[in-house]
Design a protein that fits this description.
heterodimer, A: alpha/beta, 10 strands, globular, B: mainly alpha, two-stranded antiparallel ribbon, 6 strands, 67% helix, nucleotide-binding (chain A)
């Protein structure tokens, strides 16, 4: 708690800087300054404490990095936030509302959408189907509407509207040439792009990206980071788990460092880079 | 238009001048023909059906030759084929919805059929039936009641079972199916009545069922005329080419085939819809579907109940149409057969399920017995030896294969299982996507091609 106390003011300045770009686009998530707030999160597996009293906030419109050595509890924290795990205690707040312990689909419906560390594409489905699946509020997801002749017309109409957005998104991520391919035939990097495109199709307020760059070649990595910055400029908020320190330091404006299940440090990359506890945690692991 | 775009890539593949022009055009015609068949599922099914019905006509001719009894035998063979094809096609389509689309490994198909049939029987069988007792309500109430009951049993199974992993779900459904069969077999329920209402399953001796609704047709002038149609005069004698009893049952088989078309229509519509898209995503990776905001529990329960209702209906149309049913008709082997049909056709494809059911019923289920019958009738074999040793002994001592052949023919229904196993292994090894190969059936209600690209098409 004490650590997160100092950061909002520091980040508020940066917030106003990014707000300029966001406002021109008619920004999203504008109402809440800190869309995501994690307080005293704790999760144990048997006798092992994976997340131990972690607390942090993510500011609106920011690109926040979550780093830490292996086993620091990053992925478990992610899973607790998105509902894949139920935390033992603690509170997760999204847009000012407690979402602790909700089901993954309830959390996603509220606008907090995640991607996975190992890209989970729906392999036997085409890239198009993958993207068409994602949007919220599809009337054709009701059984009777998809079957009854009278209602089917509306379903087709909505599908045609979604199709437009799907192709725009595919073009934005430059994977439109893969549209008709089965997702299982895509390369690792392409799957990462597909996952982000799919997450974006849900029209989220905030994206949680679990190692979006793992296994991605340098060209694709630049492309992906450029896309993330484009989206940030549109007003999306990002929380990004990443192993690569350099990427985090270069691209994120705020960094949260986890170590042994709790938040070790939080703040500006340039400060974090010289934080002795962080260096120690990383060196202690790497050497 | 389609011809032009279809043959275009072929032109690109063939290097010009590599083949004589005449040969090339013949090939192009063939490619085009088969290309078009591939494009049209109706043609595939129709072609396969013509082939199978021709095969069974040949079977009858081989066995009987051409006599006055041949038309009746052919009609009877076609009747059996149509009846079982429709039954298995409906069940395969319903199972494909569970397993092929949603990935719900339901190995309790027979149990849900039993619930449908017995509920229909208890509602619609007259109270003065010889075996079992029902309420004697009108048949449509019985049929709808049977479907609802099957769906509700599906719900009861689904709510706790869908929380567990896929393999445990399979065990739960298999267990449930056996519990249902054994319950229907129980003596306690066999003569159970409620106040003054008859309400008894008949236990192991089974329950009487209401008549087929189409049978009433044969009491009218239309039916009389239909029967008369097949009575002809040959050399001053009146000959009945197709017996009235065969016609009655054939009519019902045709009705079942029509309802199968209805099943296909319904499931195809579900497949090509946003609902079907969510089902596919659950099959592929449920956590992804959830992470995109889909409440997968609701989808799974809905689809499970719908599939169970369809299985109940298929059971009613099949086992419920023969005047009598006993729990023995719902052994797990029936479920296994339906799975074989879906695997042959390729899980996940509705057309594949229909084709799989056709091939299973004709080539694997009925053909071995027919072939056995032909060999038996034509070769005039010895009496079959009583044991396997008795069949093998002359084969290796005096090189006489006849006892072995007679033994094999005598045990053809057991050998069928070996055939089934071999076919399954071959399919899974060499055609894991089913006989029709890999099919991309895009789950969407609209065409998903890039819009506003009209000019680049031509």
């Amino acid at each position: 708690m004490s650590e997160s106390q100092g950061s909002p003011t520091a980040a508020a300045e940066r917030d106003t800087a990014t707000a300029d770009t966001a406002e021109s686009d008619g920004s999203r998530a504008e109402a809440v300054e800190t869309p995501l707030r994690v307080e005293n999160l704790r999760k144990t597996f048997g006798g092992i404490v994976a997340v131990d009293d972690a607390s942090f906030v993510v500011e609106s419109g920011s690109l926040t990095g979550l780093i830490g050595p292996n086993g620091a509890g990053k992925s478990t924290t992610f899973n607790c936030i998105t509902g894949a795990h139920k935390p033992d205690s603690g509170v997760v707040e999204f847009k000012g509302e407690a979402i602790t312990g909700l089901r993954p689909d309830q959390i996603a419906t509220r606008g907090l959408v995640r991607t996975f560390q190992i890209a989970r594409s729906l392999e036997e489905m085409t890239v198009l189907e993958n993207l068409m699946l994602a949007p919220k509020g599809q009337i054709g997801e009701t059984l009777w509407r998809s079957v009854l002749p009278g209602a089917r017309g509306q379903v087709i109409k909505q599908e045609e509207e979604l199709r437009e957005r799907v192709w725009e998104t595919l073009e934005f991520f430059e994977i439109d040439h893969l549209a008709q391919q089965q997702a299982g035939t895509l390369s690792g990097g392409q799957r990462k792009l597909l996952e982000m495109a799919r997450a974006l199709m849900t029209d989220p307020d905030m994206l949680l990206l679990d190692e979006p760059l793992a296994g991605v070649n340098p060209t694709l990595e630049r492309k992906l980071l450029a896309r993330i910055h484009d989206l940030q400029a549109e007003g999306y908020t990002f929380l990004l788990v990443e192993h690569d320190m350099d990427v985090i330091m270069e691209h994120c404006e705020r960094v949260i460092v986890m170590h042994q299940g709790s938040v070790l440090a939080e703040g500006d990359p340039s400060v974090i880079r010289h934080d002795e506890r962080v260096i120690e945690a990383y060196l202690g692991e790497d050497v | 238009m389609t011809d032009g775009s279809g043959s275009e890539p072929q032109g690109g593949e063939q290097s010009p001048g590599a083949e004589p022009p005449g040969d090339g055009s013949v090939r192009a015609v063939f490619d085009d023909m088969f290309g078009r068949i591939e494009r049209s599922d109706v043609l595939i099914v129709a072609t396969a059906m013509v082939a199978v019905y021709t095969l069974f006509t040949i079977f009858v001719l081989l066995r009987l030759g051409i006599t006055t009894g041949t038309p009746n035998a052919i009609a009877s063979a076609w009747r059996e084929l149509t009846f079982l094809f429709a039954a298995y096609a409906m069940l395969a389509l319903a199972l494909n919805l569970h397993w092929g689309y949603t990935g719900l490994f339901n190995i309790g198909v027979a149990g849900f059929m039993a619930v449908g049939v017995y509920t229909m029987a208890l509602l619609s069988t007259p109270a003065d039936a010889i075996s079992g007792q029902g309420l004697g309500l009108p048949l449509p109430i019985g049929v709808i009641g049977g479907m609802i009951a099957a769906a509700l049993v599906g719900l009861v199974a689904a709510v706790p079972a869908l929380r567990v992993r896929a393999d445990y779900f399979a065990i739960v459904t298999l267990g449930l199916s056996e519990i249902i069969r054994l319950t229907l077999n129980s003596r306690t329920l066999s003569e159970w009545t409620l106040e003054r209402f008859g309400f008894a399953t008949g236990g192991g001796s089974g329950i009487d069922l209401p008549d087929r609704p189409t049978d009433a047709l044969f009491d009218t002038a239309v039916g009389e005329a239909l029967i008369e149609l097949f009575v002809v005069e040959i050399g001053g004698e009146e000959v009945t080419l197709v017996a009235a009893s065969v016609l009655r049952r054939f009519t019902w088989a045709v009705v079942m085939l029509a309802i199968t078309v209805g099943f296909y229509w319904l499931l195809r519509r579900i497949g090509f819809s946003p609902f079907g898209r969510v089902l596919k995503s659950i099959r592929e990776d449920e956590l992804v579907a959830q992470s995109l905001g889909k409440d997968t529990r609701i989808f799974k329960i809905k689809v499970f109940m719908l599939g169970c209702a369809l299985m109940g209906l298929a059971g009613i149309l099949w086992q419920g149409s023969q005047g009598f049913v006993s729990p023995d008709s719902f052994r797990p082997i029936v479920t296994f057969y339906v799975f074989v049909a879906v695997i042959i056709g390729g899980s996940g494809s509705n057309t594949g399920s229909v084709i799989g059911a056709l091939f299973f019923v004709s080539l694997l289920f009925l053909a071995p017995r027919r072939v056995g019958g032909i060999v038996d009738a034509r070769l005039d074999l010895l009496d079959a030896p009583g044991t396997f040793a008795g069949a093998v002994d002359p084969l290796i001592t005096v090189f006489n294969a006849e006892p072995m052949l007679a033994y094999a023919i005598d045990n053809i229904s057991a050998l069928q299982f070996i055939l089934l196993g071999v076919v399954l292994i071959l399919i899974v090894q060499y055609r894991p996507d089913g006989v029709m190969g890999h099919r991309t059936e895009t789950a969407a209600a609209a065409d998903l091609d890039r819009p506003n690209r009209g000019e680049s098409d031509e």
